Amino acid sequence: MHPIEVLERYWNYTSFRPFQEEIINSVLDNDDTFALLPTGGGKSICFQIPALIKDGICIVISPLIALMKDQVQTLKRKGIKAIALTSGMSKSDLDTQLDNCIYGNYKFLYLSPERLQQPIVKERIQAMKVNLIAVDEAHCISQWGNDFRPAYKNISELRAIHPHVNCIALTATAKHDIVKDIIQNLDFVSPKIYKASFTRSNISYQVLQTEDKKYHLETVLTRFEGASIIYVRNRRSTIEINNYLNSKNFSSTFYHGGITHKEKQERLQQWLTGEKQIMVATTAFGMGIDKPNVRTVIHYNLPESIESYYQEAGRAGRDGGLAHAIILNENIDETHLRKQFLSTLPSTDYVKKVYKQLCNYFQIAYGEGAQSNYQFDFKSFCNIYELHPSLTYNSLLLLDRNSVIALNQQFNFRTKIQFLTSNTQLFQYLESHLDLNTLVKVLLRTYGGIFDYETKVNLNLVIKKTEIPEKQVIGQLRRLETDGIINLQIANTDSEITFLKPREDDVTINPIVKTIRQQHQLKHNQVEAVISYIKNDKVCKNIQLLKYFGEHSQTPCGKCSVCIENKPSENHTSGADLTTQIVTLLQSRDLSSRQLLKTLQCDEKNLISSLKQLVEINKIKLTNKNTFTLYDR
Is residue 537 a contact partner of residue 530, using CB atoms and an 8 Å limit? Predict the structure, then answer.
């Protein structure tokens, strides 16, 4: 079957995107192939189509569990047999799935690089008829690549098992040296290299300096209509910004790792279909989601790296239409960025301490623990050993990335409650159990259907509303359960941990000390690159991004915030003219800076400069209502 026929049959497209067909033909010619396609370039099709044409199964290595699951579900919906070996799978399930790959005519096996360390996985792969090895997010194999994962080095073992099978490496972000690293580490022979330009000519990259982000958010969303993504730093902010936008009559919803799978699907569908215009989300949102008509991507907080920013911004304008990628920046953001990503980098001694306490927490004996699996309550762990939450969390991430443990964050754990009695029986019970009154009333008022069906309960919210200590609330729930008043399923974990190596304390950590230091240096470099990008208002933003990724261009894009600022305009107002206009407007009434900005339609930076100048010469002053007035009015 010809590649275009496969594309039409399974994807309903009649033509390929740039480079896709050349890459597919290279893979079909059994060449080792490197594909650097920016976000939205359609990387997955480059290995999925040749794998469908070839006889046998394609092994896909990916570090992203969520993306693996999404791709497998997408393939299954197309009637293509695919499997993902995810964490938390029992030995019997793993055994069954691997047998399916050998005997069940499956076309795709997705697995993490850590899975390749398991003898059973390597043994069964040897028995499979492998037609292609696809390495997604291939930059993870380089120690200087974004999100370096040492386990990626194990992929060379896979090539040794099937030496005659060709390999394709794919990534959206990799500098020249990292490309060389990837090719060398994957043992490529005479590779065909395809690199698309990082230029996205239809995207206007903008950095807006502001002291009032919410005001600018409204202004941007009003000015640029269409589907939008607003990226924020944490879960609390997704809710806060979403509520603010809804109060201003914007069509908005929010998405983060703490909502249920059902809520995720419902909200994603609302946004994809256009029922909701705006998605407020943490940065995990968007991976593997192809919505071509996103007009605006707004970063409410500074991104953690240029690599992640480029990928997230690249979710705008995939249909080729004009789109805007906007960063809202205020003076304090630089400090916040350094504090969040640099001051919370744990030292190697701290990582060793966390690992040792983790082993003690689960009572793992020296020399034991390999492949053991535990439910993990992060908050309890930090409290027991008096550990700093941010430093500890980053230590766990380092241990995970370096294949000492596998950390699976199960944020969908909830406490479930259903009342088993009638209303009358419940209140008769409470007459003789007065101390339970507050808790029961909070449950009834907060969760409407709790009598009719098993209801997910946010225990932290209940604790807050009752103003009763956590231990006491749990004790009262246990009493209600014992007395037959409620059915209770209480979840006291938020994660799952698998120990991948036997406990040897410092001996376990010492081999990865050098890697930890390199990763810290990489994070420092990434943060400083973001700050440099934000501050540089002299060079075209597109040219800055291209230079970061090793491309050189001297042609300004004409549409970024720097180019717009430097572009001659008929409406350009000189400093002297602007101060005169401000004074004229203030002669009739007092005005706020927002009102002046809206009336004068000028650049905010120029307005602030003119206002400061007028204040300094005692021409205007600020009132207690935060408006400006003339001194002689």
Answer: no
pLDDT of residue 578: 85
Q: Where are the domains of the chain?
A: 3-195, 203-330+536-564, 340-401+502-523, 415-489, 575-630
Indicate if 203-330+536-564 has the same CATH topology as 3-195. yes
- What's at 142, amino acid-wise? S
Per-residue pLDDT, 412: 43
CA distance 430 to 407: 43
Alpha carbon separation from 196 to 34, 37, 169, 200 (Å, rounded): 11, 5, 14, 10
Query: Which regions of the chain are under pLDDT 50?
Result: 411-413, 570-571
Determine if the pTM surpasses 0.85.
no
The predicted structure's pLDDT at residue 300: 97
Q: What is the CATH number of domain 3-195?
A: 3.40.50.300
pLDDT digits (tens, 9 = 90+) for 471-492: 888 889 989 999 999 998 876 5
CATH superfamily, domain 203-330+536-564, is P-loop containing nucleotide triphosphate hydrolases (3.40.50.300)
Q: Tell me what pLDDT residue 9 has.
A: 93
Annotate 37-63 with b (16+ C-beta within 10 A) or e (fewer): bbbbbbbbbbbbbbbbbbebbbbbbbb
Calpha distance 508→501 (Å, rounded) = 8
Overall fold of domain 575-630? Arc Repressor Mutant, subunit A (1.10.10)
Cβ atoms of 342 and 304 closer than 8 Å: no
Q: What does the pLDDT read at residue 146? A: 64
Three-state SS letters, 22-67? HHHHHHHCCCCEEEECCCCCCHHHHHHHHHHHCCCEEEEECCCHHH
Token reading at 201: 């000519």
What does R_g of the chain's alpha carbons equal in angstroms? Answer: 28
Report the candidate in 24, 35, 364 with the shortest Cα–Cα distance to residue 174.
35
According to DSSP, residue 365 is labeled: P
Cα–Cα distance, 216 to 219 (Å, whole number):
5
What is the rounded distance in angstroms from the CA atom of residue 194 to the CA atom of residue 34?
A: 6
